[in-house]
Amino acid sequence: MAPTLSTTQFSNPAEVTDFVVHKGNGVKGLSETGIKALPDQYIQPFEERLINKFVNETDEAIPVIDMSNPDENRVAEAVCDAAEKWGFFQVINHGVPLEVLDDVKAATHRFFNLPVEEKCKFTKENSLSTTVRFGTSFSPLAEQALEWKDYLSLFFVSEAEAEQFWPDICRNETLEYIDKSKKMVRKLLEYLGKNLNVKELDETKESLFMGSIRVNLNYYPICPNPDLTVGVGRHSDVSSLTILLQDQIGGLHVRSLASGNWVHVPPVPGSFVINIGDAMQILSNGRYKSVEHRVLANGNNNRISVPIFVNPKPESVIGPLPEVIANGEEPIYRDILYSDYVRYFFRKAHDGKKTVDYAKF
């Protein structure tokens, strides 16, 4: 007989939470017990399950931009246009070597394949640094329903700090990924900035747009009853820009600003998915859109993704840029300390676009 929740080691929901969250097995460990039924605490509210049913009902698609186009103005225009109309786009021929991408994907698999006791050295309780955290779901203590995802989150302080605290098994590949994508990130931010009358990315602007970096290694294991849960719930990012490397499995969906439909972001080999985060929406006074997205759980495949969150410095004060409101445009957002904004985001469950309203007047 196939094991079900009642016949395996779990007799009640508290035991599942203990196994996944407190003992550090994550949903990967749960998936590998061979459970055949989704535990209750992963069952999402009705409206989320409804979205799961209707996510593929549209033929809309986010733009794919070739960054190697010799006409750089065309590229810049396409980037800014996508940032305003979609908040999401894919880039190809972006100049980041493909082996760097393959290496960081392989390193992600290696980390998650470590024995539980090795991964547990990096939980909130055990990690020797607040910049390194192995965890599961999004905010297990604040959520009504848990999300079917494990992650390792790495906040970049310095090479030396990473040498000391990041897991050996994925450190160099992750650092290389950050380093090799910097040039592309700068380029994208220059395009977006110029369109907002920001003449150049000087030190002040650089610390606002790209003052801090966080990388997540995400693991979405095979899920029983994937239609009842989510890999990641509806949210927009708090970053200025997110650079996402995804594997070939798929499952990321973006909410179309034009129609409200959920649009699949198909994996394009060698591409990045780029999206505008809340900080950039605020800095641009709403011109660039930070858009809701979510990830489906998958019944057949394990999926990984590796986002780089390009953020303001935590101590930055973010608000509409002076260059944007110089022409008499009314500011929609107030000035807010970036670290306060982020704290507000992580204090609650994923809830669509509600965080950005916190920064409105």
TrEMBL record:
Q: What cofactors does the UniProt entry give for this protein?
A: L-ascorbate
One term of GO molecular function: metal ion binding
Which processes are annotated in GO (biological process)?
A: coumarin biosynthetic process
Alphabetized, the UniProt keywords read: Dioxygenase, Iron, Metal-binding, Oxidoreductase
| Domain named Fe2OG dioxygenase: residues | 204-312
Q: Which family does it belong to?
A: Belongs to the iron/ascorbate-dependent oxidoreductase family.
**Protein name (Swiss-Prot/TrEMBL):** Oxoglutarate/iron-dependent dioxygenase
